[in-house]
Design a protein that fits this description.
It is built from 13 helices and two strands, in the order H-H-H-H-H-E-H-H-H-H-H-E-H-H-H. The chain is mostly helical and 289 residues long.
Length: 289
């Protein structure tokens, strides 16, 4: 049972990451590998500021700003230097490794005796219930903000940029600016996941972001599969399914551990699971033909 409770809480921690991947991959059609670096950056900024006893109202904006700058840098390299988006993300991700290591000064920074979000706010006597409610409220607020943004004129312009860049450019929209803003927003959300998970697990590690893009991608693919099957067009329902995909993804990993699979093989299981989810719609279409 501990596996599944932990999976639920981690799924909520990764909800912001899933929304970030949704914005970069599904709205802008940009495979943004910056995610691996900005996720760790969020955890690093959180750990460093917590150990320096900075208040929460300073740490949260700092994390959002750091992630946003990382994403904007990728967007600038892609749009202004005309470098492939995938390569731009890899370059920034690689640079962020050194930035993160320099900021921490060590490869691992424990937060065991440092007041965190989960100890400063007490909504329940039970620590697990307390963490659940804090993460649930955090997730709802983020989802409402992103959902509202995507329904505004600016959000519609963002979505149109991903769907038909030439058309929206002909209407006078600066598509380069839209891409930069979108990637900044996506990586700010990713950094928020690093902010949450570092406090939830009680430490920040320099390698915590390796392969994390697969977690976000898997969550989005699960959501996309459900969206296509249910023929959903609502932005709000799509975002809810993305959040559900993050939780489902973690529950699958919890089942894998619960049935006795070697934890060393967890990355392989993750890769195979994502492959199956990606292949499922294609296999279904092949069977119909």
């Amino acid at each position: 049972m501990d596996f599944y409770l932990s999976a639920l809480l981690q799924g909520l921690c990764f909800s912001a990451l899933a929304l970030g991947i949704y914005i970069s991959m599904k709205i802008f059609n940009i495979p943004d590998i910056t995610t691996d670096g900005s996720y760790t950056l969020g955890g690093v900024v959180t750990a460093v500021l917590l150990t320096h006893h900075q208040p929460a109202y300073v740490i949260l904006p700092a994390v959002i700003l750091a992630g946003g700058i990382a994403g904007a840098l990728t967007g600038l390299i892609h749009t202004k230097l005309k470098i492939n988006a995938l390569l731009a993300g890899i370059l920034v991700m690689t640079a962020l490794y050194s930035v993160n290591l320099t900021l921490m000064g060590t490869s691992n920074l424990p937060l065991n005796n440092v007041p965190s979000l989960f100890t400063l706010i007490n909504l329940s006597i039970n620590p697990n219930n307390n963490a659940f409610w804090i993460l649930a409220i955090f997730t709802v607020v983020i989802t409402l903000l992103i959902g509202y943004l995507l329904k505004t004129d600016f959000g519609i312009a963002m979505r149109a940029t991903g769907n038909s860049e030439s058309m929206i450019r002909s209407l006078g929209v600066n598509t380069d600016r839209m891409k930069i803003t979108g990637l900044a927003l996506a990586n700010a959300l990713t950094a928020l996941s690093g902010y949450l998970i570092s406090q939830f697990q009680g430490f920040t590690d320099i390698s915590m972001g390796i392969g994390i893009v697969i977690v976000g991608l898997g969550s989005v693919i699960i959501a996309e599969t459900l969206i296509n099957w249910l023929r959903i067009t609502s932005v709000w329902l799509s975002l809810v399914l993305v959040l559900g995909g993050a939780v489902i993804f973690q529950l699958v990993l919890a089942v894998t551990l619960d049935i006795g699979v070697n934890p060393n093989l967890l990355k392989i299981v993750t890769a195979v699971f994502v492959l199956l989810i990606v292949s499922l719609p294609r296999l279904s279409s092949l069977n119909k033909t």
